[in-house]
Here is the input.
Amino acid sequence: MLHKLIHTTDDHAVALLRIVLGIVFFAHGAQKALGWFGGNGWSGTMNVFTQNLGIPAIFAVLAILAEFLGSLGLIVGLLSRVAALGIAVNMVVAIFLVHLPNGFFMNWVGTQKGEGFEYHILAISMAAVIVYRGAGALSVDGMLESRQSGRHRIPIGRPHAEPS
Here is the structure.
């Protein structure tokens, strides 16, 4: 089971997606968990999720942790499939609970009531690639997989000689 979760290639394009998604969600997760970057912090976010949106407390906690801890996992490439799945689920829920009535587009010029869901579709797409392909290059998952299998990883696109 663990092997299936950490299996990956040394794909640098996937690593780029993973790291960028992790950085973006670190900012959002830190807003919710720590109150950084103008966020509400843990108690404020819990209040918004449970009181205003009617989300059960356990799911509110999981949403905050998926964004905050999931982002850290993505940045370093640890359990990237799990982290990406958590973020994708968060984005799907956000679309249906909050953003769908506002239409597709973000509120770029301040003329609509709220934000649309275009950003969420991008995040879901990035997360789906990571769930499907794994962490990519420069990841803890790749390092763990190498140790588990006892083989050295061969980076994609680089010629290699078979060991003698």
